[in-house]
Fold each of these.
Amino acid sequence: MKVTVDEAKCCGAGTCVMLAPDVFDQRDDDGIVVLLDEHPGEGLHGVVREAASVCPGVAISVSEAG
């Protein structure tokens, strides 16, 4: 799995951080997503997919290859 984020689409809701804090964080100044791990371990794949699916800004992309 490979995760990418589009900071321009991020609205700073923080849902991704609540679901997968080992993979996502937020910048202190504006709340925009920070990707901590673009290749999360298999045990995190489910929550990363969930974070991408509930992201209100559609800022998270998940590729199964990679």
Amino acid sequence: MQDHHVVVVGGGFGGLQLVNDLKGAPVRITLIDRRNHPLFQPLLSQVATTLLATSEIAWPIRNFFRDRPEVTTLLAEVVGVDSETRQVFLKNGQKIGYDTLVLATGATHAYFGHDEWEPVAPGLKTLEDATTIRRRVLLAFEQAEMETDPTVRESLLTFVIVGAGPTGVELAGIISELARTTLPREFRNIDTRKAKIILVEAGPRVLPAFAEDLSDYARKELEELGVEIRFGKPVTLCSAEGVMIGDAFVPCRTIVWAAGVQASPAAKWLDIPADRAGRAVVDKELRAPGKQDIFIIGDTASVLRDDGSPVPGIAPAAKQQGAYVAKVIKAKLAGQPAPGPFHYRHQGSLATIGKSAAIIDFGWLKLKGWIAWWVWGLAHIYFLIGVRWRIAVAWSWLWIYISRQHSARLITQRESTREE
């Protein structure tokens, strides 16, 4: 065992990349996560909408590092950091000392001051969130099949997705396809094709981070799928009976929140500045201000690009940051000059709309339609970890494409909340 102790909090894209790239370095590593699995978040919406099973996008952390004796994995929750004594505090009362600390604790969904909406409008950041949404979507159809009151039945068959970013657009498109293509022949008392899918966006267009022509294409594709899009008015109330969009109330029993994110409390642990989303403001080397032995990466960090715009909170950015911090640590231990400041290399923006439509913006090249959908699929398969999971996901998609049958429609897991 080596003397220098690196503690990594968070086993997501950034944390795993860091630990992978520290292989062979003279360090011992403790990786702490409150779940025993990382997950491929870009495909989380496909679990929520019955396309993929949970086991196809998540893998045991310990499995990755079973041949790395210098890596210790702890299933625990971090609740604080003492940078003076170099200790991490765990929820169970234990303390873990460190020489170098890397916080990659991610983000969760934000309700803009209305956390009381979460029980009726779950977000989508964890497997528990995904299975809760999947359960509610499927149960809505099951309950509508038995409902005799037409008003209640209509509310059961109304699905509202709040937020028209990539997650909201994908959820709306897949739920619409589920109702219009997969389920109609399986129900006798209802016509699932009459389900109403409403996508709510407070701004003027869907996918606002994309070029306007790609955004317009996505809107048209959604409308062809039967999705009703409501622009320009925010959601002002979520309840078990429905949502208030502006001053109009929409009765519905299934609401999904895809409107915002809130970073973990890492900035509060360290008492350092944070941006409006709670992300810790770090320097050009991804260090916490004034704390040379603490790095912050991924969705937890607020990092500016060379042009002054923020680095997006996406998987490629987190992986690049994890790789960069590994280089900084190895250079320090080797007594070599540190690499230059972190530079984010944008590899493109992708969003899928339905079974055979997507948009891709590489900057120098824009794609849309079925070609973009195939590129989107190949890119996601490539970034999956392990041949087994790549084959599993590819086979699931191929089966769905040919048969139009979603393969993960079991109602099994009980509902969960973030607190549980």
Amino acid sequence: MCLGIPGRVEEVHEDAGLRMATVSFGGIRREVCLSCTPEADVGSYVIVHVGFAITVVDEGEARRTLDVLRAMAGAVEGELGEPLP
């Protein structure tokens, strides 16, 4: 199963000409490519799929989605490699 998981952009930087970000998923931090979401910036919430931010969402939607994903703990752990805190 492949999930799009919401996270908060903590830091934006460039890597080899690509706009990248450190994104926090409820405390788990991962490097994410922002090339599909050029409007994303520090503080934005993005949906991340296979290392790419694919859309920007508001904080309320991100929190609702995280609540649902926490109820599906095994699926999230499969995507992130560890459970959401």
Amino acid sequence: MNETRDVVVVGAGPVGLMLACELRLGGVDVLVVERLAEPDRTIKAGAINVPTAQAMYRRGLLPELRAEQETALARFAQFRRDGGMPLVTDGRRPAAGHFAGIMLDVDAIDFDDPRFAELGPAAEVFLVAQQSIEAILARRAADLGVEIRRGTQVVGFSDDGEGVTVDCADHTVRTGWLVGCDGGRSIVRKLGGFEFPGVGPEITGHQAIVEMTGAEDLRMGWNTTPSGMYTYGPMPGRVLTVELDGPPADRETPVTAAELQQSIRTVSGVPVVVTAVHSATRFTDNTRQVPDYRKGRVLLAGDAAHVHSPFGGQGLNLGVGDAVNLGWKLSGVVRGWAPEGLLDTYTAERHPIGVWVLEWTRAQVALMRTDARSRALRAVIAELLASRDGATGVFEKISGVQHRYDLGGGHPLIGAATPDIELADGTRLGAHFTGAEAVLLDLTDSADLRSRVAGWSGRVRVVTAEPTQPQKLSALLVRPDGCVAWAADGGDLDGLEESLGRWFGARSAQ
């Protein structure tokens, strides 16, 4: 079978599905191919950060996120009741996350910091597992008419400068663009010859959902021991171990009950007996990143572009961020209103965020080591994280509210995520992004503003409304990925048309 598509996305995990939805929303004919015949049910990330929640909120998916969080909270509560184990032990107060297993005390965080202002209702949703995100996005893709072709293995491709010929095991697809969202062992990255520099692994980790006896002596939460670290809960049978004696000898064979039992016993010292394994995976701290996320008409996103340890669950969030950044840009290029050079901003914006994630995961492994010097450093960092400034700064980082792009411009909001301003008509700004267009928020009912943006109709939608609270802002231009491209205080419209042309192509003839 031979066929032609605008874009082929390889990989139907959360990143590939999010990208496919964004492309389809932008009017692009996209095909997703996935080597697995069924969705991967292996346990993975258990939470999302603020940018991920906001990205899905802007696409109308917040109710589904909330429902998944409510289900997760109910399971956690049942686990505590059934096992007689509180979420907080040894006098520890509730945690807002962790850094290398050092818990961040909610009460120590300064939520009056301006970075937490106007985050909107999306910031209230965080306990959503990766499998749930994938299921939500799969339904969303189906609703949008995205074809997902499972059980399809890519065996080769060639980029001739005009398009890409993708060879699958049983057919060939001709496409304008190929995007690899196929994970840390990406075939697209390997066949495309992308460089992948970084640091090799030094740990063996396991994460699993099991049935076991003797678990009453396991301590809930993150625990440091002489031989490594482990965490137990907060869902029934969920256990994670970290051993620092080198990477696993074999990552390909299935994880067995005996292997998990030995790892739990080694790290915790508790003689548990694992009687059944429902989901299990091995992981390491291999940290690598491609220098450029694009080669010709081939691009990478998610773990295909960067790999690291899973500590803090940043991989899912980093990949979703790649997808929402790339989706509208690639849509614009395919549809012809954006120059191909717009794709250069994808690496320029996303690569630094990837560098930060890789560095923070490496630092966490360093703090998990069992030697005396590392343990002394861990004690110092734990003391700093218990302070108000330390807890607030680290939480701002891991929650994603500090993330921004260096776009230039004089206004402090440019490059940051848009504030989710509450509007007098009963909506919030985030609710106006369910289409593929950028949004120009006009808070002063300016005829001059509407006149200037008229040449970008169909790419930029003007929302004229009054805020419920006084705002210094008079207008805000927000890209489809939620990033502020231009902002004005007091009615000054200087730079608006320049920004419109930079991000949304040339003005159309009136």
